[in-house]
Amino acid sequence: MLITFKCRSAPDVIMLENLAQYLLGIIGKRLGARGVINHDELGVAISKLEAAIVTDKQERAEHEGHYHEGEEGHEPHELPVGLAQRAFPFLDMLRAAQKDNTDIVWGI
Fold first, then answer.
1. pLDDT at 103 over 90
2. In a domain, 99, yes or no
3. Would you say the C-alpha torsion 69, 75, 81, 83 has a positive or negative sign?
4. How wide is the angle at C-alpha 17 spanned by C-alphas 11 and 22, nearest 5°?
5. What percent of the chain has pLDDT over 70?
6. How far apart are CA 41 and CA 73, in angstroms?
């Protein structure tokens, strides 16, 4: 199922339900049929999401250090897309909403 986040300050952000649930969980929200991130919650939400991205990048860097491409006995593999790439449109929307002091809604 697709979830569409709407805000007057940014284009709509559409994502799969599992990603929406994950990102909202990071910022301390629950995915319901309808919801809102109030403008006064945006500063904390942005900080939490940015911290999660930093942690994810550190973990990915550690994993990349253990990458054995071309070594005998190790199958080549591709790292999945990181949190920074998956969260960027949503984080961009959060920042735009904070700048313009607007709310973000979904399910409406």
1. yes
2. yes
3. negative
4. 95
5. 84
6. 50
Query: Domain of 22?
Result: 2-63+81-106
The span from the CA of 31 to the CA of 24, in Å, is 7
Average pLDDT over residues 24-40: 96
pLDDT at residue 108 is higher than 90: no
Domain count, the chain: 1
* Average pLDDT of every residue of the chain: 90
Q: Which residues contact 34 (CB under 8 A, 6 or more apart)?
A: 105, 106, 107, 108
In DSSP terms, 3 is beta-bridged to: 15
**Assigned domain for 37 exists:** yes
Q: Which amino acid is at 35?
A: G
